């Protein structure tokens, strides 16, 4: 497994230069490192911020599981989507409202076929809300299929 967390991860993260705003590091409550977040008040409604994970060493014709923690805190905070580079048009994962402010776990299967997925993009879309944030943390890539809960 490959740890792509932000505090001590070994992965290559890039801010998208063609979007409307950047993701920013935010301190964890427990004080042990940080996660990446977009506060609700950044930008205008429907503005997009993209954080890209570059995957250079994935073996072709293999499957992987991307596991991550996420939270959408606040009323009408917006949307969080995940795109794989070889399926640019439609998100492979999307969440648009949090039931509460708790962190949840997202899982995405990445099947390597003829074309290799060379990046995963976390996209935050600004909602109408003025408080809260969209956050992503603990991004881990595991070889093989995603485990059942």
UniProtKB/TrEMBL annotation:
It comes from the Eukaryota. GO terms for cellular component: membrane. The lineage of its organism: Eukaryota, Metazoa, Chordata, Craniata, Vertebrata. Pfam families: MAM. This is EGFL6 protein. Residues 2-148 form the MAM domain.
């Amino acid at each position: 497994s490959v740890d792509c967390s932000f505090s001590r991860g070994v992965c290559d993260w890039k801010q998208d230069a063609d979007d409307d705003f950047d993701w920013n590091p935010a301190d964890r409550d427990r004080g042990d490192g940080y996660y990446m977040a977009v506060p609700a008040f950044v930008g205008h409604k429907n503005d997009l911020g993209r954080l890209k994970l570059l995957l250079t060493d994935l073996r072709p014709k293999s499957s992987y599981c991307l596991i991550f923690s996420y939270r959408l805190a606040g009323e009408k905070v917006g949307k969080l989507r995940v795109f794989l580079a070889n399926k640019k048009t439609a998100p492979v994962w999307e969440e648009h409202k949090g039931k509460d402010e708790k962190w949840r776990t997202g899982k995405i299967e990445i099947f390597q076929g003829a074309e290799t997925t060379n990046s995963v993009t976390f996209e935050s879309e600004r909602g109408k809300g003025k408080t809260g944030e969209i956050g992503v943390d603990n991004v881990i890539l595991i070889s093989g299929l995603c485990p059942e809960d």
